Protein 1
Amino acid sequence: MNKFFRLSVKKKIKLKHSTQEVWRVISSPGNLNLFHPFCKSNKVIKLKHSIIKRDQLVYHNGLTFFRDFYQWDETKGYKLYIGTKDGKKSKVEWKLSPQNHHSLLSIEIFPYISAKYPVIINYVLFFLIIKPNLKRYLLNVLNGLELYMDRGVLIEKNQFGKHRWFSDMR
């Protein structure tokens, strides 16, 4: 059974681009290759009518996650499950909305909760380890998108610093 915390980690950013411009980037096949600082590769596995249904994300440390998209709303965002091929999945929501002549993009992660620990242990782990690390991760991804959209340059490996979960720490 797939259980999620009711708690989530969310970061948002105001971009000086239209929702159509932002959507064009975040909905394109292999989009994470453009702006994700911890992404070694991002390739589409299943595409249906120009909509991504499943892709693969390989981090710089070799960790491989699969993203299964289950809701796709043109220029508004998408929802997906992410995790290892046969492992437990976390839920992620990308939401895009217009704000004057700008766009507001938020990414919210609802992490999977392990059934092998008591609820209180899961909450302690969430607030002490998971939340701070995911906030930093999301901030790096959003900063990468902003830099890519503003300057049109591909984001470099660990552009804003290394991450203990996703970077090659050698």
Protein 2
Amino acid sequence: MNAYLITVDDRPGQIARVFEAAAARGVNIALAYGLANGTTGLIALGSDDEAGLRAAIADAGFTATAIEMIVVELENRPGTGAEVMRKLADAGVDLQLAVPVGMNGDLLQVGFGATDAGLLRRTLGA
């Protein structure tokens, strides 16, 4: 699955525009994350209907960067994140995205995206 990263001006309603455009097209957004710093907002979205999501993003007046997500299951315990992030850093992985996407029993499913998806996949053993 790809995540689609959208950069927006930080103001109310930006993410609503994308969700409304997706709803109008019958697209279910299965992954949604947003961050803002008072000036700029970043929205990361994912869907099983990637073509529909890309169209909805365009309908809302935005452009997006596709980021291949590699999903791995990690132990849900203190220190796991530190170990994974150090491993990625030592391998020279330039992360663009690291987001929780689900749980499988006691395992946390995390979606990672990087500028070099192949290096990310090899480093994670995925």
